[in-house]
Write a structure and sequence with these properties.
six-stranded mixed beta sheet, 8 strands, two-stranded antiparallel sheet, single chain, alpha/beta
């Protein structure tokens, strides 16, 4: 069946994938300045793309000598059959102290409960350099946008202190702007966490990495275009023999043409846009963009099941 589908995805203007707003460059500099005053790095990333888009700059400029925990969040949306292969691949490429899977939206998530004890053990076993005299422990949370950094801090805080959110949370990439003040997550021992904005690589090395990031809402949709991201999702589903979209979008059979898919789905759902014709009458056309948005939201909320978009990199 696969032979009738595209074998590669070649549409996007590469210039679209250079996303590094001003506040991100500033955030990276601020993080480097604060690095001297922290004892441990917690890097948060999306478990559906454990290898794509993790900022290579972190490796050299941010973590280095500090204990480094990688938290793969949104595990409820990820295909965990690849878990062992993913961990082996990451550990072979980078010095990570520990990998923990979490779902920050679940207050009872065992992974969230593991983070603090793991961080404290790593800090106690590390050389704290200029901070060896300090009685408090400081942790920095880093990652690309919209992977759940603020949600993670709030989950840790709720688990330990039973307090409500201290870090602003939003489902749009790039909501936490400047490096904020420290947030106390534990009294005894005294532990503070800095909430930082995510920093994505200024140039994404290939189009596919950029599209995977966009598909997981790590890049804002309008920067790439909802129909292009929806087209990449269709391409990925077909390439991996996932055909649940056929019934969801009211198609007759699997197809590789996103325009046909979106038009049929919009017509079936009576989703149209009214345009003024040159003679003063109105014409109605299928709402393609609205349908693309609907398709993406369905994917992002797990309607099509659990996926690992990076299965081709293992």
């Amino acid at each position: 069946m696969t032979s009738k589908f595209r074998q590669s995805f070649k549409v996007v203007d590469k210039a679209l994938l250079r996303w590094f707003p001003g506040h991100m460059g500033k955030g990276m500099k601020q993080m480097q300045q604060k690095l001297k005053s922290v004892d441990c790095i917690i890097e948060v990333h999306d478990a559906r793309i454990p290898l794509s888009g993790r900022n290579p700059d972190f490796k050299y400029s941010i973590s280095g000598l500090k204990p480094h925990i990688l938290v793969l969040n949104k595990m409820d949306l990820a295909d965990l059959n690849y878990k062992q292969k993913v961990e082996e691949k990451i550990m072979s490429q980078q010095k990570i102290s520990k990998i923990i899977y979490t779902n920050c939206k679940n207050s009872l998530c065992p992974g969230v409960k593991k983070i603090m004890p793991t961080a404290l053990n790593l800090i106690k076993g590390s050389n704290r350099y200029n901070r060896s005299e300090s009685i408090d422990f400081r942790i920095m949370v880093i990652g690309v946008p919209n992977v759940g950094k603020s949600s993670l801090i709030n989950s840790i805080r709720n688990t330990i202190l039973g307090k409500k959110s201290a870090a602003p949370v939003g489902a749009v990439a790039g909501i936490t702007r400047a490096v904020q003040h420290q947030i106390k997550v534990s009294h005894d021992p005294l532990v503070y966490v800095l909430d930082t904005p995510g920093v994505v690589s200024p140039t994404i090395k290939n189009v596919e990495t950029g599209l995977k990031l966009a598909l997981c809402a790590t890049l804002q949709d309008h920067l790439v275009g909802e129909e292009i991201i929806a087209d990449y999702l269709l391409y990925w589903f077909n390439k991996n023999n996932y055909f649940d979209y056929v019934s969801y979008l009211n198609c007759d059979e699997p197809t590789d043409d996103i325009r046909i898919v979106l038009a049929k789905a919009a017509i079936h759902r009576k989703s149209s846009i009214k345009y003024l014709n040159f003679d003063g009458s109105y014409i109605y056309r299928p709402d393609m963009q609205g349908m693309a948005r609907n398709f993406l939201n369905a994917f992002r909320t797990g309607v099509f099941g659990k996926v690992l978009l990076d299965n081709d990199l293992l």
